[in-house]
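Title: Comparing notes on inverse folding

I've been comparing how different people in this forum approach sequence design from structure. To keep things fair, I'm posting one structure and asking everyone to reply with a full sequence. Here's the target:
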């Protein structure tokens, strides 16, 4: 091994970090750099499928696969550890498994739920945040149905589910619920007309990234399946009985034994503690995806607020962007190792599809609106493609959606 191998440290094995590593391991020899990937679990999970595991339409186990199954251990050292501190100036990262120094750092620590300080929301609502939160939510929903079926004194709140937020995650979760509820009613002998699913949204418009036609399709589809929407209705608190909402300046209690917060995410809390100028866990990048003052630190995925040249607003936080950034950072690291200048990141927007359960959806693909079964099919293509991009054809066969 060459003595002067650069130490490349990648934090997070989500879409951004894992794509960086899987691309980089193909581009460099073991002599060129010492690559270490740190992740708090020994698995990668498909965060874009969390709404499915949360509703119980797939098992939480379907979301994940071992990180080691997609890395080349001759070139990459994988460490299961939780990052606790990034010291950018000393070029050291502290974890619960020791301290790691670096020449080049890639931060891909992803997203966390953001409740915007709404009283009780963290304590009383389920979050759609990671494998564990999704597993717990799906189990809780089923437990409530089982409890309703088994108890003599029926509590209708066991069959009531409140969902905060009619953005992408909220709508996808509602779509899965409308698939799951008939199964649960069947399993526990519950009259489906007693189930009450209510979605509460503070903004006047749902799914703001889509045209009115697409939004109307999503709303009609979900309403026909029994979902009630309360739009332009702010949630002011969450307690053990459900959400407290404001209607005409008056507070009202919406009752349910399951409350779900699906209305906000932020980048990792570690971002504020580690870097200057971070807002909601996101930092504005340079055009090559490094950060100001540190040409050896890349921040990508949901911890990044990348503003394309000539534009004013950062790109949204999506897996599609996280993966493209990971791929780009792998190339830039190769350039640095070869003493070449880094290149600017250029995002290619292929579109967005929002599922409505497994058989319907709405989306924009290469600038064109798609609706219904076509959208549902396209969503499965996108989901399978993401698995393929990280793990190749073998993993796509095992974990893909066809
Ligand atoms: P993550 O996927 O969050 O990965 C971060 C990784 O870092 C994780 O493995 C985590 O365990 C690890 N980590 C975090 N903190 C630490 C620590 N301190 N120490 C060690 N490891 C740590 N995007 C789309 O493009 N299309 C979609 O259809 C879509 N649907 C979505 C549906 C839902 C329900 C949700 C919640 C999100 C959806 N998204 C979608 C958004 C997408 O999931 C995120 O943008 C994407 O996951 C960001 O990738 P990332 O690699 O930055 O972070």
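Reply #1:
Here's my take.
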């Amino acid at each position: 091994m060459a003595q002067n191998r650069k130490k490349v440290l990648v934090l997070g094995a989500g879409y951004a970090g894992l794509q960086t590593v899987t691309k980089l391991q193909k581009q460099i020899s073991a002599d060129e750099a010492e690559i270490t990937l740190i992740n708090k679990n020994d698995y990668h999970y498909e965060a874009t499928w969390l709404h499915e595991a949360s509703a119980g339409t797939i098992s939480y186990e379907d979301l994940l696969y071992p990180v080691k199954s997609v890395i080349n251990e001759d070139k990459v050292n994988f460490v299961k550890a939780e990052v606790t501190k990034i010291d950018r100036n000393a070029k050291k990262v502290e974890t619960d498994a020791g301290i790691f120094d670096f020449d080049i750092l890639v931060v891909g620590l992803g997203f966390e739920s953001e409740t915007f300080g709404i009283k009780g929301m963290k304590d009383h609502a389920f979050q759609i945040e990671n494998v564990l939160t999704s597993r717990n939510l799906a189990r809780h929903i089923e437990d409530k149905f089982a409890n309703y079926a088994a108890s003599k004194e029926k509590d209708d709140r066991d069959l009531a589910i409140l969902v905060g937020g009619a953005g992408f995650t909220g709508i996808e979760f509602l779509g899965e619920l409308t698939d799951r509820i008939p199964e649960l009613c069947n399993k526990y002998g519950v009259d489906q007309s007693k189930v009450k699913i209510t979605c509460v949204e503070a903004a006047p418009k749902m799914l703001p990234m889509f045209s009115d036609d697409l939004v109307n399709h999503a709303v009609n589809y979900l309403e026909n399946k029994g979902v009630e929407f309360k739009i332009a209705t702010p949630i002011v608190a969450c307690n053990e009985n459900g959400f407290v909402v404001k209607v005409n300046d008056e507070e009202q209690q919406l009752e349910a034994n399951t409350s779900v917060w699906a209305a906000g995410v932020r980048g990792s809390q570690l971002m504020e503690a580690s870097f200057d100028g971070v807002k909601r866990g996101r930092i504005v990048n340079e055009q090559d995806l490094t950060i100001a003052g540190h040409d050896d630190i890349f921040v990508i995925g949901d911890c990044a607020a990348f503003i394309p040249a000539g534009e004013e607003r950062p790109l949204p936080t999506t897996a599609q962007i996280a993966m493209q950034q990971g791929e780009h950072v792998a190339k830039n690291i190769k350039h640095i190792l070869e003493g070449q200048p880094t290149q600017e990141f250029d995002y290619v927007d292929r579109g967005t599809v929002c599922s409505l359960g497994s058989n319907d959806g709405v989306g924009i693909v290469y600038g064109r609106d798609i609706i219904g079964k076509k959208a549902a099919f396209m969503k499965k293509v996108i989901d399978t493609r993401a698995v393929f991009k990280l793990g190749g054809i073998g993993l796509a066969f095992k974990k893909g959606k066809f």
